[in-house]
Structures are given as structure tokens and as C-alpha cells.
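task queued by scheduler; priority normal; single chain, no ligands, no partner chains; default sampling; output format set to C-alpha cells
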Amino acid sequence: MGAPEAPIKPIAWASALLGLALLSGCKPVGPNYSRPVFTAPNVYKESGASTVLVPPPNPTGGTWQPANPSDGMLKGKWWEVYQDPQLNALEERIAAVNQGLRQALETYRAAEDQVKAARSALYPTLSAGPSVTHDKNSAHRPLSSNATLTNYNDLILSGQASWEPDFWGRIRRTVEAAHENAQASAADMANVDLSLQSTMASDYFQLRGLDSQTKLLQATVADLEHQLDLTQRLFNGGIGTAADVAQAQTQLETVRAQLIDVGVARAQFEHAVGTIADYKLPGFSIPFSPLDLQLPRVPLGVPSQLLERRPDIAAAERRTAAANAQIGIAVSAFYPTIDLGGTGGFESTHGGTWIQGPSALWSLGAQATELLFDAGQRHALTDQARHNYEAQVSAYKSAIFLAFNDVEDQLSGLRILENEYTVQSKAVDFAQHSYDISNARYKGGATSYLEVLTAEAILIQNQRTAIDLETRQFVDSVGLIRSLGGGWDMTELPK
């Protein structure tokens, strides 16, 4: 009657293990995450520049919003809106060669590995191996007898398994936190990428703006050389004065010096562009290319889209989710720790009987441990986790506020620069007209060369100011695209 009962024990143990596995799938302790509520404004305060595409107004009492966070916004390679092949080629290099972006990528990959490491704790650990020993015991040891072997082999082939069922969700919350942190790291990488792309474009347009100033100053130098030749001929003909010649020479050399000075700034921007694109600087140069592009129109979208399109906001939100998971990890410490273990294999003193049924061995066991007293440590750690979560919520909302501030700054900058450029263009026209009149009067002998010099200096200054304002509009256009998240949105985060 006793023999049939032996197989029942493994079945009973298997049933118990299955029950424990089912229990380990219970809801994890701690709060489930929900994204902190933030109500975005219906419209941006600043949207007056003609280069900004504003979406149609939401009807009164309506709840219009895009079907997708990317609808009505720039997508992918946003820099292509400027239709500049040279800029496109420089931007394309960033993803392939930039070391700052490579660093962010490796940081993200490390965070991904952390998720896999945390998830592995959900499964049992298994180990196995043989053991071969030959023992010689003392014949004079205590309690020895003639029937006891003193010289024998001990051949063991066994495996061990251990498992901590995730009853309270500590491991699942750890996986959750690691996953959210990995997504935050991916958003950080996207933010680095966007920062590099926008810095590249800004530096490139400033370089081209300097080339426009170079073009202006070169034309001015050529004009001043003609002016100097005229004053010398008038002086030789007894009409002009030596002072006129000296003033013309002074103005010419002054503009030549300004032309050289522009080269200093251009070289610095060229170095910056080459560094971002990871070119070897001694062999890198950007051809002379004045800024003669048409400023593109940037789709603004609605304010609620900003929460989905800024990688820095996404990173802060994902870290908020990770901080929430840490609360569950802290709460799980109040519950018992349960460990399951088992050993199985074969043991014999002879190789011929090593792997046989009678040589089989096995054992199964379980252990539960509950911490009874820790002087308030678990309560303190739980409170700490909750405070860290609240701090991260504030960091998330702060990132949103700063993002909206960034967009409003870029919008106002574009609007004001556009108005200023319109007024400045009129100033250039009037300065040109004034110079033309003064130059004609001087050639006709009706005025001194000083009047021409004054009118020309005013013209040059106004022309350079107009070029500077045009350059700043391109830089602010890039800044607006960056502040709107470029072509990125949260759907690009790894799942």
C-alpha cells in the first residue's frame, strides 16, 4: 500500500507551485500611474508673424483638436523646409557621426539593457553541474565501525532551481520603472538630436548672413575705390581738396577693416558647423554663399500638441511614471519575501550505477521571511518615494511651462523682427536715396565730400542692419521649429 503513494508527492508539489505562480500574477501593490493633468491653453498669445502658419480657430463651444499629434506640424527632416541642399547634407551627417549623439544613444542602450536585467528576476534561476570526489576517512574517527566505508567515491550530477514569486509586484514595478527610465533616455537622445540639428542650422544661417555682409562690403569697397579715384582726379584738376582725398581713403580703409572683421566671425561659425558635423576641420570649408533664401512658413499647430512633440517634456513625463513605480517598490517591502527552491539529480559511488533510477535524488522547499522591526525605515523610504514622485510631477509641469514660454519667445521674436525688418528696409531705401543725391551734388561741385561720406556711412550701417535682421529671422525661425519639437512626437518612443 505504501509504494503507490510516492508519485503523488511531485504532483502535489507541482500543483502547489502552479498555485503560487498564479498568485504571483496578482495586481502589484502601490498606485497605478496616470499622467499628471495639465490643461493647455486654446491658443498661443503670440502668432502674428506672416511666416507662421496658424491653424483655424476652434469653433465656439467646440473641441477641435488634431487626430494625430503630428497633424499640421513639421515631420521628420524639418530642415528641408529651407530648401538648402548644403544644409541638408550637413544635417544628414549628425545622426551618423556626431559623438554627442552617439553618447546619448549608448546611454539609451544601457537603459534598455537595464529593463532586460530587471525582467529576468521574474523567472527562476537554474544551475547544474557534476561533482566527482574520492574520500578517505579516518578509521579511528569517533563512532566508526568496521561496517563503515573509509575509502569511497562520491559521484554527483545535480541541478538547483530557485525562484522568488512576485506576489506583491516588486519585480514588476522594478521592470516598470526601468522601462519608463529607458523611454526617458530615448527622449533625452531625441532632445540631444534636436538641439544639435537646430544649433547646426542656426550657425549655418548666421554664417550665410555674414556672407551677405561680405558681399555688401565687397561691393562697397569697389564703390569706395571709384570714389577715391574720383576725388583724386578732382583734386588733380584743382576742384577738390586734399582733405577730400584723405577722407575718401579713410572711408575705404575703414570698410576694408570691417570686411576683415566679418571674416573672424565667419571662421568661428564654420568651425562650429564642422565640429557638429564631425568633419576634420583642417580640410573643411563652406563655400561663399550669401543668404538669398526665402524664409519658409512654419506650421504652428495648437498648444495641446506641444505636450506630445517636445522630447524634453516627454522625458520629464516618463521619469514621473518611473517615480510612481518606485512607490510600489517601496510599499512591497512591507510584505513577506517568499523563496522557492529545489534540487534534483543523481548520486552514486560507481560510474556504472551513476545515471540510474535508484541513484536519483531530489528535494523541494519554500521559505517565507517577514521583517518585524526596522525602526521606521520602510515608512521613511515609502514617504521618500512619494515625495520624489511629487517632485517629478512638478518637474514635468515646469518643463511644460518653460516649453510654452520658449514658443512664445520665438513667436514674439519673429513677429517683432518682421516688423523691424519692414521698417529697416524703408530706412535703407531712404539712405540710398540720400546717398545718391549727395553723390550727384558732389560730382556737380554743389557740396563737399563730407556730405557724401556721411550719407554713405549711414547707408552702409542701414544695409548691414537689414542683413542682420534678415539673418536673425532665419535663426528665430529655426528656434521656433526647435521649440515646437522639430519633426518629433511621442509615438517615436520605444514601446
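post-processing summary
- The beta strands are 52-53, 125-136, 151-163, 298-299, 337-348, 360-369.
- Confidence is low (pLDDT under 50) at residues 1-8.
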